[in-house]
Queue: 2 jobs
Job 1
Amino acid sequence: MKFGQQISQTQKQTQKLVMTTQLQQSIQMLQFNTVDLFSFLEQKALENPLIEVELPLETTSISTTKSNQTDSSGEVDWVNQIPDQDDSLFDFLIQQIHLNYRQTDLRDLALFLIEYLDSNGYLSISVEDAVRLSQTNETKLLDALRLIQILEPAGVGARSLQECLLLQIERDETSPNLAYLIIEEYFDEFANRKWEKIAKAYQISLSDVQIVFDYVQHLSPFPGAHFSKTDEQFIIPDLLVMIQEDQLSLRRTKEAQPRLTFQKHYFEQMKQADDYEVKKYLKDRKEEYEWLHKSLLQRGDTILKIGEAILRHQQNFFFDTKRPLVPLQMKQIAKEVGVHESTVSRSVNGKYLQCPFGVYELKSFFPTGMKQPAHSDEEIATAEIKREIMKIIENENKRKPLSDQKIVEQLKENSFNLSRRTVAKYREALGIASSAKRKRYDEN
């Protein structure tokens, strides 16, 4: 058998997109939110002696609430937005123990157990493991746990949701008479709304059980959550919407516009050095400044243009108190502005718009929509559909809640053509229980 091998030389033309470091950083700058952009520019200023960054703000963190305080000039008072630094749950409990209990072995055990409380206030270690680790007996350990359970907030130190509710009911003098017994003896039946068994056991009416249920709804299943420290995002709106009569206007906020300054005097001074490496270094650093300055201006212009396009589509949001949104896709805005869809995506993520009634992420102005079978070209925002479902459920007879199919029928009367499965999906997304769990047993 013969083997042959032929060697030939061919020329092939291919096209590839090569992303330079500058192009990658330019895309990255567009994707940054304002705070990340500030950090990025400050780092560049540290690396490049020819760049000076002037930031419009000196604060380091502000609240992410949608209601921002303003002064008489209409400018946002960002300093008053700095979140309070509250004690953690751990610190709060330690303070109570040192204040209320004298130095004993029992107090030491209580301090030991506090280290095993999770952020919601629940004991995250079993009694058996705690006994083994602390090298004590179970009775003493449970006594120490009881010391924790009588501290504030009510419910802390619980080992289950049932125990958490019982600890809160135990302290509340206004709790319904049978609330403690029902939660203690019939917790599963109560939670699963098998109330007939409970009513029969205590010889009470279903409306009496309903009263207990309404009361329990106001108890906290996570007593320690109030103390949980979340990392507050530093939000500075990029755009400001002004409403005058029936006109909308949009501009960039000065708080979101850092300034880059070129250190010309330092550049001219260093340029006098008769050293090739120094001159090359200065040339590279100057080019970096020019690129950063250009990219910063381009970033601001792109966000502003996209914001203006959004306003043209979502005008009703700013004039109608119900804040309706029409379905809008990023590719529509990309076509109008003359950029790629990915550019729109980067420009709206983490960028915020401030208006007289709140602060909103630009991404929130792109609600999904669903086509209506009766009108193939018509789309209705899912937010509008959800509002309609909520309205129907709010107005239903609570003693005879509407099934998902009944909701479908009522939606059809209002020209919303949805399947029962879709209604169920939206209802669950709204956190609304099924008809069986919405039923109330109030007395007439």
Note: The longest strand covers residues 375-381.
Job 2
Amino acid sequence: MNPVLIVKRLSLSMMVLAASNQVVADEAAIQKKLNQLIPNAAAANIKESVIPNVYEVSLGAKIIYMSGDGQYIINGHIINLDTRENLTEQALNETRKTELGKLSSSSMIVYPAKGPKKRTITVFSDIDCPYCRKLHKEIPALNQAGIEVRYMAYPRAGIGSEAYKKAVSVWCAKDSAKAMDEAMTTGHVTSKTCSNPVRKHMQQAENFGVTGTPNIVFDSGRMIPGYAPANELIKLLTHKAS
């Protein structure tokens, strides 16, 4: 083999190895800083972003960016100006989809699709939220379109509030779906207590970055932070990119 070619290949291999070692070192520095900021937190998913020396850091269903030395945090979205693609939103969809897969539907109130299930939406909902009640009226149309609706509790007023107590009562009802229907349509809730998932749902909502209700998460990971009518949701859910 040509000696010059051998040298070039060796140089390239050394450059690749050096770059790989640098990435490993950067990831370690970032994780160390995260451990200082969030003690006992689970290891983050860290990978290179499209910007040199800036890393994409996934924390549950949230994404931040950090410099390779772990000293700087960038809280925002990366957008490719040539293609107009929101790269951060694409990454968030993937992380939310992964986190959805970790949730157990057995703790949710589920309204099954009529006929073959085509899509699923998970809704963080508050019984005292007017727009949550408005969305609840759309469930029959969604179910008829083959969309399963899964409820998780997110009483915005917090633990111990009236909204929280209502959520606990609904989840503790013998027929929780029926109790939810009554609560959403008439406002009446029969007070009950039991071992329930409401507090855990609220923690999981924080993990997804939920700040208001209703908050709709598609099975693809796409999130709609607010009310949308059934016809709009069906249109979005039947679009391949959603």
Note: The longest helix spans residues 3-37.
